[in-house]
Amino acid sequence: MVQIDLLRLRQCGTQPLTGSIGPDSELWDGCGLRFAGPVEVQGSASLAAGGGIVVQGSWRAPLVYECGRCLDDLQVAVERSLTLLFTPDDSWEAPDPDVRVIDGRETVLDLRDAIREEIVLEAPRYYTAGEEDGRCTRCGSPAREYRSEPNGLGPMDPRWAALKVLQTNQEENDGGSQETGFQAAEAEAPHTR
Ligand SMILES: [Zn+2]
């Protein structure tokens, strides 16, 4: 539940906000994001001049992306600050997309729709893991496997590239081919001296 008790808010002036929205909530239907766990929301709500309400805090969403390089699933926790402004509908004048209207007769302010909007707006659509020493920092696959080939054939299908990595690892683990490589290096050595 991510909501504010408006009666207590009007009594106390501020109310803490903590809550979570499950990854399978229908709230996320059609939003184009994948969640690995619940979205956590925390902060506080306070009364503002003129009967408005200010909610300040943060949200944290454990999102799942397909790595833009290798299509492996990547879990990325996206965290952003949250500021929501609500104004009583009778003071509604100039339409401001950042200010939401609150019905003065409500006793509970449900923040889920507002939080959904914020997350859909601010969470990245795509995510590509970084690259370090030629390897994807998340999955460890060699980054060069996913670059386009100079011969114009275009980038290798990442699914094939993933198989190729497996194949290469297998060859490395195979004693026979390692020995062959060692012998070849030894044979070359006299010429380089
Ligand atoms: Zn990757």
Characterise the protein shown here.
The protein is elongated. With 193 residues, it is α+β, with helices and mostly antiparallel strands. It folds into two domains: 3-122, Beta-Lactamase; 147-192, no CATH class. It starts with a strand and ends with a helix. Helix content is 27%, strand content 35%. The chain contains four helices and twelve strands. It binds zinc ion. Zinc ion is lined by residues 67, 69-70, 72, 129, 136, 138-139, 141.
List the helices and strands and how they pair.
Layout: E1 3-5, H1 6-12, E2 14-21, E3 34-35, E4 39-47, E5 53-66, E6 73-88, E7 99-102, E8 108-110, H2 112-122, E9 131-132, E10 135-136, E11 148-149, E12 154-155, H3 158-173, H4 175-192
Parallel strand pairs: 6-7
Antiparallel strand pairs: 1-8, 2-4, 3-5, 4-5, 5-6, 9-10, 11-12
The protein binds zinc ion.
Zinc ion binds next to loops.
Q: How many E-type strands? A: 12
**How much is the average pLDDT?**
79
Count of folded domains: 2
Radius of gyration: 27 Å
- Corresponding CATH architecture of the largest domain: 2-Layer Sandwich
Which kinds of small molecule does this entry bind, naming each only once? zinc ion
Low-confidence stretches: 148-154, 175-193
State the assembly state of the protein chains: single chain
Please identify the structural class as seen in this structure: alpha+beta
> Helicity, in percent?
25-40%
What string gives the helices and strands in order?
EHEEEEEEEHEEEEHH
Termini gap? 73 Å
* Largest sheet, strands/sense/barrel: 6 strands, mixed
CATH fold-type name of the largest domain = Beta-Lactamase
Percentage beta strand: 25-35%
CATH classification class of the largest domain: Alpha Beta
Which overall shape is indicated by the principal axes computed on the Cα atoms? elongated
- What count of helical segments does DSSP give? 4
